[in-house]
Design brief:
Length: 100
């Protein structure tokens, strides 16, 4: 009986980890003129290699990390059962994820 509850608990923990780390990867985002930087054209963001940017006031809530192979990793707010109507996009990620 204990092992059954352990498996259920591990399954729930794995699901929680998947939701908490919603990420998108965008490859080949080398900055056209700045060596050692990534460029996220959609938001006009320049990010130094191995650094994270927390953009504000870009009509979206996310953080973006520039890997040393010029791949961008974007982390977004976790999905909710009831989507927010309003968030404060003037705050950096993850504070901008909170419903107001």
């Amino acid at each position: 009986m204990f092992s059954r509850f352990s498996l259920i608990g591990l399954g729930l923990l794995a699901c929680l980890a998947m939701v908490a780390t919603q990420a998108t990867y965008l490859g080949n985002r080398r900055h056209p003129t700045l060596p050692g930087h990534c460029f996220y054209e959609e938001y006009n963001l320049t990010i130094k290699v191995n650094q994270t940017s927390y953009p504000r006031n870009v009509n979206n809530c996310f953080k973006v990390f520039c890997r040393d192979d010029f791949v961008l990793r974007l982390n977004h707010c976790p999905r909710r059962a009831n989507p927010c109507r309003r968030t404060d996009l003037s705050k950096p990620f993850p504070q901008c994820c909170v419903c107001v």
